[in-house]
Automatic annotation (TrEMBL):
SUPFAM superfamilies: UDP-Glycosyltransferase/glycogen phosphorylase. It comes from the Eukaryota. Keywords: Glycosyltransferase, Transferase. One of its GO terms (cellular component) is glycosylphosphatidylinositol-N-acetylglucosaminyltransferase (GPI-GnT) complex. GO terms for biological process: GPI anchor biosynthetic process. Residues 68-156 form the PIGA GPI anchor biosynthesis domain. It comes from Prymnesium parvum. Residues 1-23 are annotated as: Disordered. The keyword Glycosyltransferase applies. Residues 224-361 form the Glycosyl transferase family domain. One of its GO terms (molecular function) is phosphatidylinositol N-acetylglucosaminyltransferase activity. This is Phosphatidylinositol N-acetylglucosaminyltransferase.
């Protein structure tokens, strides 16, 4: 059954102009975004959370971000546009994800929500902080929205356990948002969710940052194939290892530019060394998001070999920069753009080789088409924010479930799983009441809000800095702001 969307049909087909400075709303929300993945880490989820938060601020809503510490980056940090980020003092143990914290996160999480007068918690992606905060926020009586950014299988042992965990966690959320229709079907089946309570709001991009630049193509005289991805198995690095040597053998003028890092980078390096392709393959390592346009515009073709994708923002960025895209036909990729903008193939070396060979041959004979204007009219982060606000509005009108209602819903998870879930929620509820007794809400100081409207009206300019340095411990200690006329 198709869910009623919170705004026009998904897929980003509604045109939008560039974001306005501030748009007042009659009922502003106070939102806490929660995710293990955030800056200074780089990736699609990080970009989604950052862009959505910035646009919600422009629409007049209060937004903070809650994530874990990254190295020495802990405590409260401010992004240069007024977005407040809490780096809680918990360290990641694997792939930027925290270990399970049990109830350790609850006291700090409660204090932050009260200090910032939060009314709604919005968690993102399958990660420890996001999943734990869904159940903790529901225990404290907050509205909860969860956005799923990935697809998972049904047969693998790891996927089976993740699906059971997500079914328990998402049963405590008020509603679920996905980034594609394929992802909606996937999460609805995996977690036994009502499809009418799952909304589709796609990702987007800031097309003003991703423009074609023919003068930046390098090296000259080659057909440059760009790959920007995390070098992990699910992104198809094993396909790259098999594909690149054969492409270089067939086309002496083909040149690969690979940006990204990950545990499978060693396999790429070994392939380059084994086939002596040091002059044909560039390994850039991790690429900062602000440097992505300059890397994309070096190429003619963008190659995506992912084995699973809910929605690939990198494809939008590549097409917006004027590249021809060759991608595997997986997940929500076919929904992103019209067929004439993407060349899709099966996630197999022979199929990818045939598709890439076709595009390389075509690019050698004539210029590739430019779809920058079409992409800029299809996708806008401001439209994503407006549609997300409509979901918030619907959630705010719902009746909060009682503790007995939550227990009744958890009992449907199964005899053993249901009892374990009820025990976890009961312990959270008891600990929460103990915290309320030991540290009443009246004893917690409230934080003043960032005056976004005043900041925008005074036309505060931000000094150009690398994105990895766009944090400040306070507005007074780090002079990143220069006020006109002050």
């Amino acid at each position: 059954m198709e869910a009623e969307e919170p705004s026009p049909a998904p897929g980003g087909t509604e045109a939008s102009s560039s974001p306005v400075a501030t748009e007042a709303t009659p009922t502003p929300h106070r939102v806490c975004m929660v995710c293990d993945f955030f800056y200074p880490s780089m990736g699609g989820v990080e970009n989604h959370v950052h862009q959505l938060a910035q646009c919600l601020l422009r629409l007049g809503h209060k937004v903070i971000v809650l994530t874990h510490q990254y190295g020495a980056r802990t405590g409260v940090r401010w992004l240069a546009t007024g977005l407040k980020v809490y780096h809680v003092p918990f360290a990641a143990v694997y792939d930027r994800v925290l270990p399970p914290t049990g109830l350790l996160l609850l006291p700090l999480f409660r204090d932050i929500l009260i200090r910032e007068r939060i009314t709604l918690v919005h968690s993102h992606a399958v990660c420890t902080m996001a999943l734990e905060c869904v159940t903790l926020a529901a225990t404290m009586g907050y509205r909860v929205v969860y956005t799923e950014h990935s697809n998972f299988g049904f047969s693998d042992s790891a996927d089976i356990h993740i699906n059971k965990l997500c079914r328990f966690v998402l049963s405590q959320a008020d509603t679920v948002v996905t980034v594609s229709h394929t992802s909606k079907e996937n999460v609805s089946l995996r977690c036994h969710l009502d499809p009418t309570n799952v909304f589709v709001i796609p990702n987007a991009l800031d097309a003003t940052q991703f423009r074609p630049d023919p003068d930046n193509i390098s090296p000259k005289g080659c057909i440059n194939v760009v790959v920007l991805t995390r070098l992990v198995w699910r992104k198809g690095t094993h396909l790259l290892v098999q594909l690149i040597p054969e492409v270089c053998r067939r086309f002496p003028y083909a040149h690969f530019i690979i940006g990204g890092d990950g545990p499978n980078r060693t396999e790429i390096e070994e392939m380059v060394e084994r086939h002596q392709l040091q002059e044909r393959v560039e390994l850039l390592g991790a690429v900062q998001h602000c440097d992505v346009p300059s890397v994309l515009t070096r190429g003619h073709i963008f190659l995506n070999t992912s084995l699973t994708e809910a929605f690939c923002i990198a494809l939008l960025e590549a097409v917006s920069c004027g590249l021809q895209v060759v991608s595997t036909r997986v997940g929500g990729v076919p929904e992103i753009l019209p067929p004439h903008m993407l060349l899709l193939t099966e996630p197999e070396p022979t199929a990818l080789l045939a598709a890439l060979s076709e595009v390389i041959t075509f690019a050698r004979k004539r210029p590739l088409p430019n779809y920058h204007r079409e992409v800029s009219q299809m996708y806008s982060w401001m439209q994503v924010a407006r549609r997300t606000v409509k979901v918030y509005d619907q959630v705010a009108l719902r009746v909060r479930p009682t503790l007995s209602d939550r227990f009744h819903g958890l009992s449907e998870l199964g005899s053993l799983s249901g009892m374990l879930a009820i025990l976890i929620v009961a312990l959270q509820h008891l600990f929460f009441n103990l915290l309320c007794f030991l540290r009443p809400e009246s004893n917690i100081d409230l934080c003043p809000d960032f005056l976004f409207e005043e900041w925008a009206s005074r036309r505060i300019k931000v000094e150009p800095l690398p994105i990895s340095e766009r944090y400040m411990s306070s507005l007074s200690q780090r002079r990143h702001f220069v006020m006109n006329g002050s």
